Amino acid sequence: MSETVVEEQAPAEGFVAPVPMEEDEAGQFPGDTGTLDAPVRRVLVRLLQRRFLVAERNRAQWRTLLENQQVIESRLHDLYVHLVVDHDRGIAYKRQVRSAESDVPILLKDDPYTRAETLVLVHLRTVFQRERGAGESSARVDVEEVEQSVLTFFEPDDRNLATRQTEIRNAVRRLEKEGVIEEESEGRYRVTPLVEIVLSNERLVELREWLREQNDATEEAAR
């Protein structure tokens, strides 16, 4: 039996044979003109998506950040965003660049804390500061403790107790999502060093003074 031989025709001049996408090492998707490796891109995206990158919770990405900090900073600077890397606490976060001399487009929107969230932060920051001052390596709080402390800053005759409790619980959930606290068991949380960045000592002093004035005004009105 004779075999039929099919001759392979040479591609026409100017024609480039297609390369399967999985074999295309030049880009990570069709038309990709980026120059960063995939792990570096993921760290960059995470920094843009989240408020913080915490070394303790993302060790691989933290290493990638430190190894490629200069190029990641450069990409963020292109967007008028400044990168802050706190090596002592193992926390990285971004800040919007603002300038009175030039018209800087604003990429990052301010998402201010509600009153309940601010009050919860004050309590967490106070507990963290107290425990660290006592030589403790970590600080922990119970949600009931947080609730009772924060409720003292609302009007004594406030009849919307259930509403206030819901606001406080929602505040705890937001701060847990941001990494300020971590739930170790049901209703029991560890306060992370992130609380020192979210609420600086200077701002804590200002808020305590404001709360003291509010409390004095309330007591004076009740007399």
Question: Would you kindly provide a written description of the structure presented here, covering whatever features stand out?
Answer:
The N and C termini lie far apart (115 Å). The longest helix is centred in the C-terminal third of the chain and has 22 residues, at 201-222. The chain is built from eight helices and six strands; from the N terminus they run αβααββαβααββαα. Helix 4 crosses helix 5 and helix 4 (115-133) crosses helix 6 (161-178). It is elongated and about 65 Å long. It has two domains: 21-96, Arc Repressor Mutant, subunit A; 115-222, Winged helix-like DNA-binding domain superfamily/Winged helix DNA-binding domain (Arc Repressor Mutant, subunit A, Orthogonal Bundle). Strands 1-3-2 form a three-stranded antiparallel β-sheet. The protein has a three-stranded antiparallel β-sheet with strand order 4-6-5. The protein has helices spanning 38-49, 59-67, 69-78, 115-133, 143-151, 161-178, 194-198, 201-222; strands at residues 52-54, 81-86, 91-96, 139-142, 181-185, 188-191. The chain is an alpha+beta fold and 223 residues long.
